[in-house]
Design brief:
Blueprint (H helix, E strand, L loop, with lengths): L1 E5 L2 E4 L4 E8 L7 E7 L6 E6 L5 E3 L7 E6 L4 E6 L8 E8 L14 E2 L3 E6 L1
Parallel strand pairs: 2-11
Antiparallel strand pairs: 1-3, 3-8, 4-5, 4-9, 5-6, 7-8, 9-10, 9-11
Length: 123
């Protein structure tokens, strides 16, 4: 499975961005696709995941601002980010894996990773 993340960029605080994660290769709809992010000097943190049954989970602090969705026909997962804040500045990575509910927020649960896309929010 190869993952290609795109859609990052620079935006002012309060603005919006939509990230895309396109999956190619040996893909099927049984993979959960997640977004993680890593800010400079910080550990990679879980953002959101969408499971094959379209169930979604978010890190609590981002609920209401970020929305994850998937289009299985296009093998693409999206992360809509609204009301962006300077603390959202990070490299955003998408990841794929066959996960169970108790492990979705751990990076080690995902075997495939995209290259990352930079999001910069200026205040």
């Amino acid at each position: 499975v190869q993952l290609q993340a795109s859609g990052g960029g620079s935006v002012q605080a309060g603005g919006s961005l939509r990230l895309s994660c396109a999956a190619t290769g040996s893909t099927d709809s049984s993979y959960a696709i997640a977004w993680f992010r890593q800010a400079p000097g910080k550990e990679r943190e879980f953002v959101a995941v969408i499971r094959p049954n379209y169930a979604t989970y978010y890190t609590d602090s981002l609920k209401g601002r970020f929305t994850i969705s998937r289009d299985n026909a296009k093998n693409t997962v999206y992360l809509q980010m609204n009301s962006l804040k300077s603390e959202d500045t990070a490299v955003y990575y998408c990841a794929a894996g066959r996960i169970i509910t108790s492990t979705y927020r751990y990076a080690r649960s995902y075997g495939y990773w995209g290259q990352g896309t930079q999001v910069t929010v200026s205040s």
